[in-house]
Design a protein that fits this description.
Helix content is 31%, strand content 19%. By secondary structure, the protein is α/β, with parallel strands linked by helices.
């Protein structure tokens, strides 16, 4: 039976996959297929539809440079508006012609003698000269291993799989997890529920969100006066870069930001006992900073109780905290985050030696420039390891990586080459990143965040400015690679 071949297979139709497909086609690479397991575009913004879901980066920074949006309705736009934008960009650029929805990748293995990737999907087998993983880390829910959770008789769902058919009105609800998603949905559901029990293993720093609707005249001016739009965008970018500088130079900038966090907490929460529960014991920045104008205030409502403990077990309808707290509830909502550093796609992709990406990483993901991994020829990862900033737009990171990928693929296809990054180049880069992370807020010793992998290493954060990220990550250099003719077998 014949197998369909494409020059490039892109896995995922979120912001990264859309960007890669558009830019590759612009560069003349037209034999492309985008495989998307869901039924529409959007990735993160398709998966996360919970009440209050919104961006925590200013909207003007949250769009493609080749498709700027000056019509955002808020300073920080909501999920539906972002999804509509992403979907419109994909369709306006004709990606419907190359996208196959409802197709899940089951495995991908490098075939050295053939110089191509063999890909098994839910809709049949494919081969590809180049494989681009744009699966993204913010759509695969992390479900906690809590004894008894699976036997809970009520309703259970993760924030990224929100059950909009379940009526929360009048229900007793337990929320497990207090990260970025919970900060947004808790204020939205609190007025409807009878009781809201928030299980908080670790307090988070919360800062006010400078958000407001963009009035019509301002939208008109931003759309019709290019210089104004560029100036406002540059100002917002500079403000975010100042936050980034604080991450890299915790003293005194991050300490000043922490003082603001303490002042905001004092103003928002008058109850001293509750405020003590909500006061973090770590340096701001070593966990993701959260932004909200109503989360802290909501936690003081009469139908809300904050349990400053993790969850030990679920016994029937009762959620039991690690400190022995026991509450009976009708529903459990999990705000427990995602598989960020243990991306499921890593289990599915096998390199030149037959081992999976997950086996190569052994709990500590690493990639040269966050994009390519030695032993995985002609393969690329978008939003890979060590590219997280905590303050800037994923669009900026994605576009830098896609520029690199486009240059790499166009250079390789011009010479009919197979590219495999040199292991010593990758190792030198990883060592450089890890050394630079020392002394940053990301690596503060006072907390344990999702930035740290299974081995305790920070495999998430980028230790320099976002402008440095763009300069470095977008530049392809063939000297970093071993190269072979596509007709030659690449050694394992």
């Amino acid at each position: 039976m014949s197998t369909t071949h494409h020059e490039v297979v892109i896995v995922g139709a979120g912001i990264s996959g859309i960007c890669a497909a558009i830019r590759l086609r612009d560069a003349g690479v037209t034999d492309i297929v985008v495989l998307e397991k869901a039924e529409t575009y959007g990735g993160t913004w398709r998966a996360n539809t919970y009440p209050g879901c919104a961006c925590d980066v200013p909207s003007r920074l949250y769009s493609y440079s080749f498709a700027p949006n000056t019509g955002w309705s808020r300073v920080y736009s909501g999920q539906a508006e972002i999804l509509a934008y992403v979907d419109a960009v994909a369709r306006d650029h004709g990606l419907d012609d190359v996208t196959r929805f409802g197709v899940a990748v089951e495995s991908a293995a490098w075939d050295g003698p053939a110089g191509r990737w063999r890909i098994a999907t839910s809709a049949g087998d494919l081969t590809a000269t180049y494989l681009v993983s744009a699966a993204g880390p913010w759509n695969e829910p992390k479900i906690p291993d809590v004894p008894g959770l699976s036997a809970f008789p009520g309703e259970v769902f993760h924030s990224a799989r929100w059950n909009h058919d379940y009526d929360l009105r009048g229900k007793r609800v337990a929320v497990i997890g207090t990260g970025a998603s919970a900060v947004q949905f808790v204020p939205e559901i609190q007025p409807d529920v009878a009781e809201l029990h928030l299980f908080q293993r670790t307090a988070h720093w919360v800062l006010p969100k400078l958000d407001h609707p963009v009035p019509g005249p301002e939208q008109w001016a931003l759309h019709n006066v290019p210089l104004l739009a560029a100036t406002v965008k540059r100002l917002e970018y500079s403000m975010m870069e100042l936050v980034g500088l604080a991450f890299h130079r915790p003293r005194p900038l991050m300490h000043a930001l922490q003082a603001l966090g303490k002042a905001y907490l004092r103003a928002a929460v008058r109850d001293t006992e509750l405020r003590e529960k909500l006061t973090p014991a770590y340096l701001i920045g070593c966990k993701r900073i959260l932004f909200s104008n109503n989360y802290l205030q909501t936690l003081g409502r009469t139908n809300v109780e904050v349990h400053a403990t993790g969850v030990r077990s679920v016994e029937g309808s009762t959620v039991v905290g690690a400190d022995g707290t026991a509450v009976e509830v009708d529903a459990i909502i999990l705000g427990t985050g995602f598989h960020i550093l243990d991306m499921p796609v890593a289990e599915l992709v096998r390199g030149a030696d037959g081992r999976s990406l997950a086996e190569h990483w052994a709990g500590s993901p690493e990639a040269y420039l966050g994009t390519v991994v030695s032993g995985f020829p002609n393969a690329f990862i978008v939003l890979g390891p060590s590219l997280g900033t905590g303050h800037t737009s994923a669009f900026q990171i994605t576009e830098a990586q896609v520029s690199y990928i486009v240059d790499a693929i166009t250079a390789a296809r011009a010479e009919d080459l197979v590219l495999d990054v040199r292991p010593e180049v990758q190792q030198a880069y990883v060592d450089e990143v890890q050394a630079a992370l020392e002394g940053t807020a990301y690596n503060a010793s006072s907390c344990n965040s999702y930035y740290r992998d299974a081995n305790g290493r920070n495999s998430f954060a980028w230790p320099w400015s976002s402008s440095a990220l763009v300069r470095r990550v977008s530049r392809f250099d063939v000297a970093a690679y071993t190269t072979a003719s596509a007709t030659e077998e690449v050694p394992a």
